[in-house]
Amino acid sequence: MNKLGRFCCIAALAIGSWAAEAANSDPIVLIHGFIGWGRDEMFGMKYWGGGFAGERDLQEVLKANGTPTYTVAVGPVSSVWDRAVETYYEVKGGCVDYGAAHAAKHGHNRYGRCYSALYPQWDATHQVHFVTHSMGGQTARALETLLRDGAQEERAASGDAVAELYKGGKKWTHSITTLSTPHDGTTLASGVQLLGIAPQVVGAAAAVAGLNSSTNVVYDFKLDQWNLRRNSGESFDSYLNRVTSSPIWNGSIKDISLWDLSPDGAKELNQWTKTYSDTYYFSFSTEATYRGLLTGWQYPELSMFLPFQPLAMFMGTYTRNQAGKVALDSSWWQNDGIVNTRSMRAPAGHPWVSYNGTPVKGSWNHMGLWNSWDHFDIQGLFCASCNINPLHIQHANLLKSLD
After folding, report:
1. Residue 161: which region, alpha, beta or left (left: phi > 0; alpha: psi -120 to 50)?
2. Cα torsion angle, 258, 263, 264, 266, sign
3. Rounded-to-5 percentages of helix, strand, coil across the chain
4. Can you list the alpha helix ranges (DSSP code H) found in 273-388?
5. What is the pTM of this model?
6. DSSP state, 257?
7. Which terminus of the chain has a smaller tally of CB atoms within 10 A, N or C?
8. Could you give the CA distance from residue 274 to residue 362 in angstroms, rounded to a whole number?
9. How far is Cα 249 from Cα 218, in angstroms, rounded to an integer?
10. Which residues form the catalytic set?
């Protein structure tokens, strides 16, 4: 079935789905993935929806459907820890404190930007639903773990002056939904320089925005903790060159996306993040490759976003069997151009179930595999024929029905 047909089916399901009375009024918080951006960047082209307003602005679509929705903008190439901490302060408000122990361990600044709260009342009686794309799923999982358990090393380092986030004891998360998330990492991070994707994605977004060049595009890597803030009047090309040539990418530093997105880094993340028995979890998987009859390799479908196709080809053939590293075999070949499909269902070692219409607490409810959807289709980027609204409205209604 082609994409238009699938979107029609989604619309029919959404229209025909049972109308449950809302059991909660908790807002949705949208967290973008690797290389993502905020609502005021990219000249207003929305990461969530792929447009500038109206039906291509998912935040406003969900709000119009009766679901309070907020969008955060965290470091697009920062580590999962740093992104999780930034999300906390954007939602709750205040100046980012990455933690004294964390900052000392990794050699960056302890404090970051200051934010006005998106949802200042956020607490145990005013919980949120995190809806996330790609690395945003890892971000939400890490944030929930920090909220619930805190960080002992930060409490030891700062004593009574420790930031509220690291104290723990906060059951503030109602649910986490992940879309195409590399729970177990992506093989791109093992064999391809991930930052090479940035100019292609930003350039494509600039073209959609009607710009002739991406040189002066409004885009911010938000790497203040590494002293990599974009200078006033600095071109994007110059800024990108400073970021990509920084020593933070030399492999010795693990407090960056390249490590957390790798299968080995994701394995480490899965060991300290938790799946809690009183939280709801949902995951959506995507794929846009097909299996070659002679080779068994996975090849990109023609409908895949063009810059992703050589990446998909690499992922569709890559294997690795090295001592001390996660083994990568043919089960990793199916992918959506950025993330291996087998990585999207749930974190390895965490419980999961196939969703059957009744959400299960404390397990990852796998919402199924969305065939011929590349990594950006599920949040509407670079796909003029994609209408993601019925899918997301239907899921928002499910979230509102949770006890």
Report:
1. alpha
2. positive
3. 40, 15, 45
4. 309-315
5. 0.94
6. H
7. C
8. 10
9. 23
10. 134, 336, 375
